[in-house]
Amino acid sequence: MAEALKGKPVADAIKAELTKKVDELKGKGITxxxxxxxxGARPDDLFYxxxxxxxxxAVGMDSEVFEYPEDIDQAAFENAVKEVGAKKDVNGIxxxxxxxKTLDERKIRTLIPVEKDVDCLTIGGAAKVFTDDPTGFPxxxxxxxxEMLDFYNIPIKGKKCVVVGRSLxxxxxxxxxxxxxxxxxxxxxxxxxxxxxVCKEAEILVAAVGRAKMVKGNFxxxxxxxxxxxxxxxxxxxxxxxxxxxxxxxxxxxxxxxPVPAGVGSVTTSVLCKHTILACEMQNK
Length: 285
Ligand code: NAP
What we know:
The protein is α/β, with parallel strands linked by helices. The protein is built from 10 helices and 11 strands. The protein has helices at 8-27, 43-59, 74-86, 105-109, 123-130, 140-151, 171-180, 195-200, 247-250, 268-283; strands spanning 3-4, 33-39, 62-68, 92-95, 160-164, 184-188, 204-207, 225-228, 232-233, 241-242, 256-257.
C-alpha cells in the first residue's frame, strides 16, 4: 500500500511557521494583509475565498474582499483594480479568474503591481518565476506541490520528473520549480505520444490535466511518487470530487501518492498566506 501524502500536516507546518513570522511583524507594528478581488459570486471562488480568509485569520494576518458585480464595465473595473493595488495596507492580491467575458482579463492582470502578485497573475510575475528571480511568487498550486515534496523529504535533484499539463497556472510553473531543484523534467500535454509509457518512466509524476481519473494503472510504476493536482467532479460519486489520477488503480502500484481530496488542495491557501507575508516583508524592508 502506498504512503498517502496528505496535505494537512504540510499546511499545519507552514501555518506554524507563518504564525511566528506574523507575530514578529506585528511586534514592529506591521500586519500583513491579503486583498481578494472577486467579480460575481461563483461557488468555487466563494469556497476558495472562505478557505483563504480562514487561513489568514489562523496565522494572524488580515484579509479584505473587494467584491464587484458581474456586469461591471472595463473602465470601472480597471479603476477598482488600480485602487486595490495602490492600497498601502494590502501586501498581496488574489484575483479570481476567469473574469466575465465582457472584461479584458489580459489587460486587467497588468494592473496588479508585480510586488503584490502573490499568485503569479502578471507577465512580470511569471517572468520572475521563469528566470528564478527569488522576489517572484509562483502560482500557489505548483508551489504547494513543491511544499509537499519538501515536507515529505522527497529528493528531486537528478530525478526523472514528468508533469502532465502545460497550463500557465499549474503545468509550466510546476516544471520550472522542479527544474530549479535540479529535476530532469518532461512536460506532457494533449498531443504527447505514448503518454502512459512516458508517465511510467517518471520517478516523480505530477498530474495536472483536469480530467477525472485519467491517469490509470498503466501510467504508473512501482517506486513512483505521484502528486495529483486535479480537482474534478467525480463521475462515479455524484456531488464529490476526485483527482486526475485513478487512485484505486494507481495506489496499489506506486510508493507514495497524494490523495484527492485532502492532498495538494489543502496546502494552497497556506502558500498564498506565505507569499503575502514574504511580499509584506519585502515591501517593508
Ligand atoms: P488546464 O488549463 O485545462 O490545462 C490542462 C492541461 O492538461 C493542458 O495543458 C492540456 O494539454 C493537458 N491535457 C488535457 N487533456 C489531456 C490528455 N488527454 N492527455 C494529456 N494532457 C492533457 O487545467 P489547469 O488549470 O492546469 O488545471 C489542471 C488541474 O488542476 C484541474 O483538475 C484543476 O481543477 C486542478 N487545479 C487544482 C488546484 C489546486 O489547488 N489543487 C488549483 C488549480 C487547478 P493541452 O495544452 O495540449 O491542451
